[in-house]
Design goal:
Order of helices and strands: HHHHHHHHHHHHH
Largest sheet: none
Helix content: over 70%
Structural class: mainly alpha
Shape: globular
Distance between the termini: 14 Å
Strand content: under 5%
Number of strands: 0
């Protein structure tokens, strides 16, 4: 079940960068559309959990939800949505792939947890693979806003790493609460924060959501990207560790290339193939410890 959930997370998240880009390029206000995506997805999931009597509205008032919402949702995606106005979706995926390395660095530098050297080497190899895969196909017009956009995504990944580590502690501390309900609550909190940011920074016109591109992008991101993808991700964090689920950031570029080859007649160069092999190798190396534990547990159950 864990490997199936991980595969679905990789597949879903591998398509969200392009979906965000399509919506933003079609005229959707970045902060408002991000807030609408996460608040609606979180609200639907949360009300469902309340109806099933697996959550209560008091969860929304917990300080833990405020912090995880501010980091995992608001910090990560407000920067990503804004940056994709000036940065291609491919480059956004490359920069977002720094998340697992930041998690390992935070574990080592701040939490004083000793990470295996092979995990750090695996993350570095994975990043190199992503660069090999995407950079040959990028045509970037370097400008001040492009540079700021790149920096914004990296800041967002720092927020993501902080939130991923903190959410693991929250899940252990609040073991009686459903991970799905906690994920829904933090999405609602983060979405509400983006509504407030939108109120002070951008003009919102409802006609901007009238096109097929903006509406289709929003529906896909709400249902598949947030309700399904983020719930599976939060469940994986609870069942494994913060680093293992976050390595979807290495798998998503190969998925994007595969979709392009199958459905859009795109070609694969030897550099692209080398990048895919490097990414898979780096992912396996970074998660060698977690993977061996999961395999051992599965053998014991059998």
């Amino acid at each position: 079940m864990i490997f199936l959930a991980y595969a679905l997370v990789c597949l879903i998240f591998g398509t969200t960068f392009l979906a965000i880009k399509i919506g933003v390029d079609a005229g959707a206000p970045p902060f408002f559309s991000a807030g609408l995506r996460f608040f609606l997805a979180g609200a639907i999931l949360f009300l469902w959990m309340v109806w099933k009597r697996k959550a209560s509205f008091s969860l929304l008032l917990r300080k833990e939800m405020l912090f995880t919402g501010a980091t995992l949702t608001f910090g990560t995606f407000s920067t990503l949505y804004w940056a994709e106005q000036y940065v291609s979706s491919g480059l956004a995926a490359v920069l977002s792939a720094t998340g697992p390395i930041m998690i390992l660095l935070l574990q080592t530098a701040i939490l004083r947890q000793k990470s295996p050297k092979h995990s750090l080497y695996g993350c570095i190899i994975g990043c190199i693979g992503v660069l090999l895969l995407v950079l040959p196909n990028l045509s970037v017009d370097v400008s001040p806003l492009w540079l700021v956009g790149c920096g914004a995504i990296l800041i967002g990944e720092c927020c993501y790493a902080t939130g991923a580590l903190y959410s693991k502690k929250v899940i252990n501390r609040m073991s009686d609460a459903s991970p799905i309900a906690m994920n829904a609550a933090q999405m609602m909190v983060g979405g509400a924060m983006m509504f407030i940011l939108s109120l002070f920074t951008e003009e919102v016109h409802l006609e901007s959501f009238a096109s097929f591109q903006t509406t289709g992008s929003l529906i896909y991101l709400i249902v598949i990207g947030s309700m399904v993808g983020h719930t599976l991700f939060y469940w994986l964090v609870a069942k494994t560790n913060p680093v293992f689920p976050s390595t979807w950031l290495y798998i998503s570029p190969p998925i994007a290339v595969g979709v392009g080859v199958l459905f859009y007649d795109e070609t694969i160069s030897w550099v692209t193939l080398l990048g895919i092999i490097t990414i898979i190798g780096g992912t396996i190396l970074a998660n060698a410890g977690a993977l061996s534990q999961l395999i051992a547990k599965r053998r014991l159950r059998v």
